[in-house]
Design a protein that fits this description.
It is built from 3 helices and no strands. By secondary structure, it is mainly alpha-helical. It has one domain.
Amino acid sequence: MLEIAFALGLLIVLAAFTVLKLVLAVETVLLLGVGLVAGGLVLGVPTGAIYHVALRASLARAGVLPARWWLQPTSLHDRIPPDERAWVLGWCYAGAAGFLITMAGCVVVAIGAWRAAT
């Protein structure tokens, strides 16, 4: 349910950007997009790194850390001990939010670049 609400919120934000692209100056759209990309990276990179460290530590403490665990870390979420699940997955969700903000910023930059070219 939370994922659906988040996806709908993201769609509303993207629709708002599309509507605002008709009102805002090209420079404003580009600056807004660059700001979103920077903000998403500032949020996503550190929280993603903390997530990977927390996941590795949690799986190692439980004795279920496989070799090359970093290749598909989300497939290991079912192995996280229940008492550590909220801590580890909280960082995962924060990193994912940073990624989505970064991608939204890329869309806004693309809209600004498209408007500048036309």
